[in-house]
Structure formats: C-alpha cells, structure tokens
Amino acid sequence: MENNKPDLAESRQTLLRFLLAKRKPIIIITALISLGSVVASLLMTPLYLSTAIVFPAATSSVSFSEQRNAKSAAMDFGEEEQTEQLVQILQSSRIRDKIVQQFNLMAHYEIAASDVNKNYKLTKAYDGHFSFGRTRYGSIKIEVLDEDPKLAALMANKIVDLIDTVKNDMISERTIPAFEVNRRKKEQMERERDSVLNCLDSLAEMGVIALDVRSNLFQAYVDSKDATDRAELKKKIEINMKHGAKYDGLEYIRNEKTVKLEDFRISYEQAESDANAKFNHKFIVERAVVADRKEKPKRMIIVFIATIAGFVLSIFSLLILDKYKELSK
User: Fold this and answer.
1) Per the domain annotation, does 250 fall within a domain?
2) Does some domain include residue 196?
3) Between 297 and 275, whose confidence is greater?
4) Backbone angles phi, psi at 53, to 5 degrees
5) Which residue has the higher pLDDT, 117 or 34?
6) What is the pTM of this model?
7) Residue 147 contacts by C-beta under 8 Å, 6 or more apart in sequence?
8) What is the mean pLDDT of the segment spanning 163-177?
9) What is the domain count for the chain?
C-alpha cells in the first residue's frame, strides 16, 4: 500500500508535466472545438415550444340505467385508466395523419414525396417535434416544437380539438353496428306485436270479445225476452265458444310482447344515445399560446459541453499520439 502512494504521486507529476508541455496544442484544439460548437449552435434552427394541458373526462356516455355509477358523472375528471387511454389516442396514427394532412408536414419537414423512406422520415420528424405525457397531477401535457411559433401553437390546439373527433369516431365504429342490431331487434318485436294485434282485431270484428266480458253473454242470453235478441246473442256465444280460446291465447301473447318491448326500449335508447351522441372527452386546462422565446437550441450549454469534451479529447489524443511515438521508437 505504501509502495502505491509514491507511484500514484509520480503518475500525477508525470501527467502535470505532460499537460504543461502540451499546453499549447491542448489550448488550440479546445479553442477550435469550442469555436466550432459556437458556429454550429448559431447555424441550428431555433425551435419554439407550445404547450397545452388537458384532463380526460371520467365518462363518455349518458346512462339510462337507474343504477347510475356515481363516479361516472359528466362533470368528473378521469382517473389513471382514462389518462393512459387518452395518451394512447394522442400517440396514435389517427391524430398524426390528420395533423400531417392539415398542416402539410411532408413539405414543412422537407421530405420528398418520391422518397422511398418518406413514411419513416415523417414519423421520426413528427416524434421529434410532438410529445404527449402524463403529469404528476393526472393531466396530459401536449408539447409541440416548431421553428414557427405561431404554427406550433396552432398545431397544439388542433390536437386538443382532435381528441373529441378521433375518440368519437372510434366509439362510433362500435356503437353504430350495436345500435343497428338493437334497431332491427326492436322492429322485429314491433312486427310480431302488430301481427298479434291484427289477429285480435280480426277476431274482434267477428264478434269475439275478452274473457271477462264473455261471461256476460250467457247472462244476457238468459235474461233476454226478445227472440231476435236471443238469436243474435246465441250467434255471438257460438262464435266466442269457437274462437274464444284463440283470442285468449293471442291476448296473453300480446301482453307478453308488450312488456318485453317496453323493457327493451331502455336498451334501445341507450344504444341510440351511444351511437348518435358526440361527446366532449376532455377538460381543457390550458390552451397553447404563441411562444415569445425559443426552446432549442441551448447555445450556452452546447458550447460548454463541447469545450469540456474538446479539452478531454485533446488530452487523450495527445496521450495516444505520444504513446504511439514512444512505441514506434
């Protein structure tokens, strides 16, 4: 251990002597790299940042059920699950394609339409300028970088507006077919009910009456003194004796179908609401505004890091060169 201390001290002295001997080339290399970083940072296109913040809504539908979930009120903010879902939608190609088309980002990012790698380059450029992330408060931050501060704010606010459009389109892809199934089922149930009603009407035209009224025919026949009335009542009794059971069965089926149809209306109205209603799926906390100062590049940081890197690189380069000369001899 004691032998290592003199070796370490000697190594330090050797390194210091080397730095002093090579101070001029080290300073020159460091200065050149630092100057180059200054020029490079000045040539970089400044980018401006616009930020919008939204909260997801807890629910995206109106419930017709009596057992309504208290946590699904229209005024409630969404929780972690809704936030993650909304971030996925923001990162989807549905949003990206609409923004690319509306703002002609292919031309804006100088990507040739004939380029075989145009989709890859466009996606990479888009990901480098647009970011979506969840904040510690459960909201979603939408950030857009662009060399034009007005365009950055426009695109950020357009993404905020597209949240409802895209999510409603996604919901409609499922709810409209479900509503069509419910509509066809409702129409089928109404046709079956109407068919039973038509049969009942036909029997009623023949003189068939309901069971609770039918028993009065016999009492009327017994009480009747007129031969003509008795003949008419007898005819009605015969018709009701012949078709009464059928009438009673149809009346029971009508009542059953009417109850089922009324119960089904809740499901139908829910499906109709889900298919046709266009909801707002977010709470806008802050819309994007035009930035008045650039976000990137941070020139001082670039120059500082480049200077430190140049200093270290020059030392290592000179050490390697010196060692190479020593080995060559």
Assistant:
1) yes
2) yes
3) 275
4) -130, 130
5) 117
6) 0.67
7) 45, 46, 47, 48
8) 87
9) 1
